[in-house]
Amino acid sequence: MMLADYxxxxxxxxxxxxxxxxxxxxxPHFYTxxxxxxxxxxxxxxxxxxxxxxxxxxSTERQILTRLAxxxxxxxxxxxxxxxxxGLVILHREVNxxxxxxxxxxxxxxxxxxxxxxxxxxxxxxxxGGAPV
Length: 133
Known about the structure:
Layout: H1 3-7, H2 12-23, H3 33-45, H4 47-55, H5 59-69, H6 78-85, E1 90-92, E2 97-99, H7 102-111, H8 113-128
């Protein structure tokens, strides 16, 4: 699933809330569903917004995002709730699971420096048969 596809599953109320969360306008805007979707996609199409979001994360939050990008299991907690509020994670509360849209995963994989450290540690482990430090 792509972020654009996910946005089509949201109600007008959720799209408006997502818009307000991302843009934090001083004066409320009243758009159509399509205008809200386009605005949210435009926000996440800007690489500076991705960079700013990743730069604002703690090291623990970066680790969680790395795990999400690699499709590893994570506990649904307040941080995942916040990512859901930003439109980056799809929470399925009724079955206690989540999804990360593929294009979001790609953006995260490009920006998370800890991913490179993790991959180099796995290569080191494979070469000498020991665990990386």
